[in-house]
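Running this now, will post back.
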Amino acid sequence: FIIITFTSLEILKFSNQGADVTNIKNIEIKLENHKFYPNEIVVEEGTKILLKIVNLDSEAEEFDSDDLKKEKIISANSETVFSVGPLKNGVYEFVGEFHPDTANGKILVNK
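Update: finished.
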């Protein structure tokens, strides 16, 4: 019985075999008082994002984006990391599903 562990970056590299992964951007978003900081991110077209969300609130939140096709529960006082992209030119909105009036933001992708 063998246990193999991988870091997030190793998983990202493995999942992109054969793809150009030179345009990867690490981005951290903090969730505090039911708001995302920053709530607007700008990247170039073709960028793959390794997104780290740190929830500083005492309640869980669900990161939800129909545009990015991602949903992720972030427990209270914890963090999660996942990748999105590579992204095409456009606007990708996201919300905290439990507090959509305050926890919202977008990723702007420019050519």
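Strands lie at 24-32, 35-37, 40-44, 48-55, 61-65, 70-74, 78-84, 90-96, 104-110. More later if anyone needs it.
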